Amino acid sequence: MGRDDWADAALDALADGGLAAVAVEPIAARLGATKGSFYWHFANRDALVEAALARWADRHTDAVIRELDPITDPAERLAALLDATIGRPVANRAELALLAHADHPAVAPVLAAVTARRVEFIAAAYQQMGCTARDARHRAVLGYTAHIGLIQAQRATAGALLPDADRPAYLRFLAGVIRPPAGD
Fold first, then answer.
1. Quick check: is 120 in a domain?
2. Quick one: pLDDT at residue 171?
3. Which residue pairs from 154-161 have beta carbons closer than 8 angstroms and sit at least 24 positions apart in sequence?
4. By residue range, what is the domain housing residue 173?
């Protein structure tokens, strides 16, 4: 049982029940481990929360960016990003749980850093497409907030707002809305 196993289990617990669910004994039971195993890897619960947050940031931001960065055409990169985030019916439970705890002192800086990284990645593609820095940022913020709004609304409607069958059409529509006009 390694540190990553504990961080993964903590992230799952966070997704299932928020920060309050990140508790050593229930996670140990879920893993079939002892509290001693936990203390071998972490000084305290706060360190476990920190590791889970780092894991979330890597999996849901840095890994996606690493996967998409090699795409040289910025329009193709943005299309791949839309597909990777909105186009796949993925459970965004951890993201929703973190947004619900956005004012928590451990969560707030991680959310701020992830948001900045995501918006910068999107804006860079728009700049490569010829947008000014200001317009690129505005388009990036629009695209990013559309994503966050959609996952919030999907949760509130149990997925009824945008059924899976409608996702491809929604992606085409959204891509058209956020694509800069020719010569912009």
1. yes
2. 84
3. 154/92, 155/92, 155/96, 159/89
4. 71-178
